[in-house]
């Protein structure tokens, strides 16, 4: 599933440090020459394509990125220190535009690739530099030039790792709310979700994945009923589907099994590729079933569906079982990625 993720950020390079005007002062040397040092260059701002960063979501909270100013020059020919550069981590695949003109500045495709987006100011010159045969005591010095300031628009095509499938009202948006900072609308009427929502599930500092909440799929979606069709076709890019089933369906004429079958049929009608994708059964709203009946209630659904794949029992509302589900997904995606890399290496015949 693909989404365009966007963010605007401001990048400010450091100004160059000023040059110094000063003269040597030492005992017994009455007319010491000029000894003002140059300033340091201002730091620049670079964007760096970084592994494991997979969305632009963090830029919503941190949108100004500054590099350091260069130090001013000092007496005794001391050169000012160069300002530190600022490196901003972005996900691979980020395209960078000048915000005001829409002009493309560049794109970052390879991990580790760097793009200069704001150049640091040039250092000012100390008065030593202005010394000449006709002017042995120059007062001149120059100021550092200003660092570049720019507004950038970042754009990224995000491919969701996990797609949620399920009847309207099954609790897909609630699940995304429970496990990520995404805030899709949740309500007790069908088709709350009119556009796909993305949630980034952060497992720890280094690991996260993207989960996509899509509008509920209903019977006939593969033929275009409801809102299902346009989203079904994008699901083929995900690595895992979660089939969310309400264990006590909202529609009284529906049972969990009949609701689940409808979804499976739609998926099979749509494409073999989608039907063969790894799919897990997520039985939601177990809090609507008395504690001591959950096990039995869920097992009956699994048996009737003749489902032999992974099953998770959760309550998105009460946040029960959701954490375990997220860990299992992360583990699965990592294994899947490792396997794909292995296959790629096999294909390309690389030894390692
Ligand atoms: N009791 C209970 N209610 C839940 C649970 N999860 C979701 N709900 C409720 O079910 C209703 C529908 O939830 P949503 O998350 O909007 O369902 P959805 O699958 O995203 O629905 P659509 O976007 O219409 O396809 C809301 O009233 C939720 O509060 C749960 O685990 N337990
Ligand atoms: Mg929804």
Describe this structure as you would to a colleague:
There is one protein chain. The protein has 352 residues and is of the alpha/beta class. It folds into two domains: 2-13 and 34-122 and 147-157, GTP1/OBG domain (Spo0b-associated Gtp-binding Protein, Chain: A), CATH 2.70.210.12; 160-348, Rossmann fold (3-Layer(aba) Sandwich). Helices cover 20% and strands 24% of the residues. It contains six helices and 14 strands. Strands 10-11-9-12-13-14 form a six-stranded mixed beta sheet, sandwiched between helices. A five-stranded mixed beta sheet has the order 3-1-8-5-6, with no helix packed on it. α3 (256-270) runs parallel beside α5 (294-305). It is elongated, with a radius of gyration of 30 Å.
Residue-averaged pLDDT, rounded? 85
CATH architecture of the largest domain: 3-Layer(aba) Sandwich
User: Which CATH top level class of the largest domain fits?
Assistant: Alpha Beta
Shape: elongated
Keywords: Cytoplasm, GTP-binding, Hydrolase, Magnesium, Metal-binding, Nucleotide-binding
Subcellular location: Cytoplasm
Protein name: GTPase Obg
Binding site for Mg(2+): 173, 193
């Amino acid at each position: 599933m693909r989404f365009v993720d966007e963010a605007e950020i401001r990048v400010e390079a450091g100004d160059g440090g000023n040059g110094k005007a000063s003269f040597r002062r030492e005992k017994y040397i009455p007319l010491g020459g000029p000894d003002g040092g140059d300033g340091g260059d201002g730091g620049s701002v670079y964007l760096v394509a970084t592994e494991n960063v997979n969305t632009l979501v963090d830029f919503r909270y941190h949108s100004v990125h500054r590099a350091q100013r260069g130090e001013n020059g000092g007496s005794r020919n001391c050169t000012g220190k160069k300002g530190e550069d600022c490196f901003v981590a972005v996900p691979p695949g980020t395209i960078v535009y000048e915000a005001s003109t829409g002009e493309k500045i560049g794109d970052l495709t390879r991990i580790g690739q760097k793009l200069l987006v704001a150049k640091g100011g040039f250092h000012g010159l100390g008065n030593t530099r202005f010394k000449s045969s006709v002017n042995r005591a120059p007062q001149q010095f120059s100021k550092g030039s200003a660092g570049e300031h720019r507004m950038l628009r970042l754009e990224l095509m995000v491919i969701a790792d996990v797609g949620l499938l399920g009847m309207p009202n099954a609790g897909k948006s609630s699940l995304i709310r429970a496990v990520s900072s995404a805030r899709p609308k949740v309500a007790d009427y069908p088709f709350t979700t009119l556009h796909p929502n993305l949630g980034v599930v952060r497992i720890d500092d280094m690991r996260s994945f993207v989960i996509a909440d899509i509008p509920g799929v209903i019977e006939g979606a593969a033929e275009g009923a409801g809102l299902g069709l346009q989203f079904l076709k994008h699901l083929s890019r995900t690595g895992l589907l979660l089939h969310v089933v309400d264990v006590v369906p909202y529609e009284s004429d529906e049972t969990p099994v009949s609701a689940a079958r409808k979804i499976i049929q739609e998926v099979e009608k749509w494409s073999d590729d989608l039907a063969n994708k790894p799919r897990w059964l997520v039985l939601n709203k177990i809090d609507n079933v008395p504690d001591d009946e959950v096990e039995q209630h869920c097992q009956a659904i699994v048996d009737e569906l003749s489902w032999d794949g992974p099953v998770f029992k959760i309550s998105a509302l009460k946040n029960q079982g959701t954490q375990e589900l997220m860990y299992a997904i992360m583990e699965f995606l990592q294994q899947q990625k490792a396997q794909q890399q292995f296959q790629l290496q096999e294909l390309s015949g690389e030894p390692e």
